[in-house]
Amino acid sequence: MSYLIKGAAVLGGAPTDLILSDGVISEIGSGLSANGAELVDAAGLVALPGLVDLHTHLREPGREDAETVDSGTAAAALGGFTAVHAMANTEPVADTAGVVEQVWRLGREAGHCDVYPVGAVTVGLAGERLAELGAMADSAARVRVFSDDGKCVSDAVLMRRALEYVKAFDGVIAQHAQEPRLTADAQMNEGELSGKLGLAGWPAVAEEAIIARDCLLAAHVGSRLHVCHVSTAGSVEIVRWAKSKGWNVTAEACPHHLLLTDDLAATYDPIYKVNPPLRSSADVEALREGLADGTIDAVATDHAPHPHEDKDCEWAAAAFGMLGLETALSIVQETMVDPGLLDWAGVADRMSYAPARIGRVHDHGRPLEVGQPANVVLYDPSVRRAVDPTVSASLSRNSPYAGMELPGQVVATFLRGRATVLDGKLQ
Amino acid sequence: MKRHLLSAADLTRDDAELVLTTADEMRSLADRPIKKLPALRGRTVVNLFFEDSTRTRISFEAAAKRLSADVINFAAKGSSLSKGESLKDTALTLEAMGADAVVVRHGSSGAPHRLAHSGWVRSSVVNAGDGTHEHPTQALLDAFTMWKHLGESRPGGLEGRRVAIVGDVLHSRVARSNALLLRTLGAEVTLVAPPTLLPVGVESWPVETSYDLDAVIPKADAVMMLRVQRERMQGGFFPTPREYSRRYGLDARRMATLQDHTIVMHPGPMVRGMEITADVADSARSVIVEQVTNGVAVRMAVLYLLLGGSEPAVGGEE
Fold first, then answer.
1. Residue B318 domain-assigned?
2. Other CB atoms closer than 10 Å to residue B314's CB: what's the count?
């Protein structure tokens, strides 16, 4: 199957035609003819490299009531992603070659996008001893990103050893930065509002202290650190400082932290409960600025599906997390592109090139050039739509954007030249 | 008044004063031979208590019964998670039984708010204490007690009266509700606590704060001591219970520095010897037992006003 994409604005540039055949971009130019290829009218659409998510919870194995590899990757394709990194906090935990290979194989069978399993840093995410990182790296899943996400590798010695150990196979430790003692029972951003609402605070310093420590550790042992879901202005400052030293530190920010603020907790509706929590508008501003200037390398969704009953309850009893795959690009447009902080080339970098580079995913995050793998997303930035979680491909419905009007719509996604989404519909 | 009482902030000054004057009428009932009114006959009040609190529950129960309401006590001990039944399912059960008002005590901040705003129940929701958030009827009974002693006989009521609230403000729903309500009524509130027991962001509250009890209490018209829960004593918020008592406890020496008219309050249950000594608790200044009595009258007023008593509650003889 081959496709002739007519009149797409590649990275927002002048309209041009692309031919996708045999899994690669075979031709780029104007006035290309079909020669049997299926025509895709892309007038008014922006063409971007297939998006890469560094932070996705697919929930399988273990919580197939919330999400499966099949449903989660379908949501990813609809959001314009051609590759996702599946977090390790499944049941059982992805801390052995067996589990990561299972997730990787389920991704291949589903076929909606490539699934790169993240391996746990420690056995059972317990923070006590290293999992068999080498076995996961050498497995068919070829793991390069290791994370105890959901929990922080808080023990300094263990974190040091993990950073050192993964140097042997060019791995990276993706840290969920949360000092556990400072965040016992934490429910929301610690500030004026947490005191008024009587919800236990999650102070910014609990994130920033770990990031500072880990930057210093990464520098000391000469390894690679990636910071998950940076949520505070102070964290952005620390990462900026570490980068200024030339240290090998990268960071991601989540769409919800670019858009939503902690005042939503005043509703006591746990649809807004997430970890790290929604922060202040000053933090949101700092994240946008950091993403614009490259201090924050990547946007990552932290797509976290939960069944209805885990959100339809009192705040403290509810699960942390929110859906993100199908709305990520729209939120980046709303918060970064439309205000002029980032152009489409910048979006391609933060949502495709950079995350692929951090995850050492070689077939994704490639420029839209002849001969490159045909991983392409076509996006219509001109439409506005009200978010309706009931039509999501995810098995869960915990979107904080329900009813909110957001710009843009993914029209088509191609994975190695095969349409996974066409006319906005899953193929 | 609004349909629910979830926070002391739900009350305007007019609302709060209406509760106080209605409570005063209710309290006068205590002097009558028959202490019962027909005002809520045929209405059902459910006491939904997810936390043990015998004193608050029986106070609400007595209040509802004196208004002739049918009372159902629903003790769902423990968190909804450990019990297995969710707050939502409990609420749906109560709704099916036809509750007119649900009085809810819950360990999670915001649980009454969820109950009122999630479409699970149609009845009025009264917050009887939620987590470390609020306890508005406690604040009303405290305000009523202060008003009887310090406000009733002067224009402006509690306007300009100085109230010191002392102790574990961080974890206290009583302190939050009192700070809001007393401010609404025009009183000046000073929260006194070690810095570890004041919430982050307290600067934005409509109150003064102090770390120094001795500097504050000579100017106070009312001193409200908060309970220090046993689990906090081990939590590292202060070095030892003895040091806490020395710096923030109310004893006879400190009591001697109070003005003659100043009253001493405590929401109970007290930890005698910790935040308050026995001789202070049992002194003539102490209105602690009166607070309990007033609690019934204030809760009668709240239930009566929320359940839409349009007729005067205390009318002629029936």
1. no
2. 16
Residue B310: predicted pLDDT? 52
Is there a contact between B87 and A314 if contact means CB atoms under 8 Å apart? Answer: yes
Nearest CA in chain A to B119: A312
Asked if B201 is an interface residue toward chain A (Cβ–Cβ < 8 A), one would say yes
For the annotated catalytic residues of A, the residue numbers are 302
CB within 8 Å: B131 and A316: yes
Q: Which residues of B touch A313 (CB under 8 A)?
A: 80, 86-88, 114
Reading phi first (left if > 0) and then psi (alpha if -120 to 50, else beta), residue B243 is in: alpha
Q: Which domain holds residue B245?
A: 136-292
CATH classification code of A50-359: 3.20.20.140
Helix (H, G, I), strand (E, B) or coil at B289: helix
| Selected residues 301-360 of chain A with any CB under 8 Å from a CB in chain B | 309, 312-317
Q: Taking a C-beta distance cutoff of 8 angstroms, is the pair B258, B268 a contact?
A: no
Q: Does residue B20 sit within a domain?
A: yes
Amino acid A307: pLDDT: 97
User: Do B299 and B287 fall within a single domain?
Assistant: no
* pLDDT at residue B79, as a whole number: 46
Q: Which residues pair with A409 in a beta bridge?
A: A380
B312 in any annotated domain = no
Residue A166 is predicted with a pLDDT of 98
Residues of chain A below pLDDT 50: none
**Nearest Cβ partner for B111 among A192, A267, A314:** A314
CA–chain centroid gap for B149, Å, is 17
Which token pair is A419? Answer: 């349409």
- Closest chain A C-alpha to B48 CA, distance in angstroms: 15
pLDDT averaged over chain B? 91
Q: Cα B127–B129–B133 angle (5° rounding)?
A: 100
B110 and A268 within 8 Å at the Cβ level: the answer is yes
Of A191, A192, A315, the CB nearest to B110: A315
Give me Rg for the CA atoms of chain A. 20
Asked if A198 lies within 8 A of B132 by C-beta distance, the reply is yes
- Quick check: A292 and A341 in contact, CB under 8 A? yes
Same domain, B188 and B210: yes
Under CATH, which architecture does the A3-46+372-426 domain have? Roll (2.30)
Question: Which residues of A, range 182-241, sit inside 8 Å of B by Cβ?
Answer: 187, 190-201, 203
Q: Are strands A46-49 and A51-56 parallel, antiparallel or unpaired?
A: unpaired
Low-confidence ranges of chain B (pLDDT < 50): 79-81, 316-318
φ, ψ for residue B290, nearest 5 deg: -65, -35
ipTM score assigned to the predicted complex? 0.90
Q: How many domains does chain B have?
A: 2
Nearest to B134 among A198, A267, A316 (CB): A198
Q: B81: which chain A residues are within 8 Å (Cβ-Cβ)? A: 317
d(CA A396, CA A402): 13
**Hey, is the C-beta of A96 within 8 angstroms of any chain B C-beta?**
no
> In the prediction, which pLDDT does B317 show?
39
State the pLDDT at residue A334: 98
What one-character DSSP code corresponds to residue A121? S
- B236 touches A at CB < 8 Å: no
In this complex, do B133 and A193 lie within 8 Å of one another by their Cβ atoms?
no
Torsion of CA B76, B78, B79, B84, to 10 degrees: -70
Residue B200 inside a domain? The answer is: yes
Residues B140 and B287 in one domain: yes
- Are residue B287 and residue B301 in the same domain, yes or no? no
- Angstrom distance (rounded) from CA B20 to CA B24: 6
Q: Domain check: are B279 and B302 in the same one?
A: no
- CATH number for the domain spanning B255: value is 3.40.50.1370
The reply to whether B142 and B223 lie within a common domain is yes
Domain ranges of chain A: 3-46+372-426, 50-359
Please list the residues that pair with B223 across neighbouring strands: B164, B264
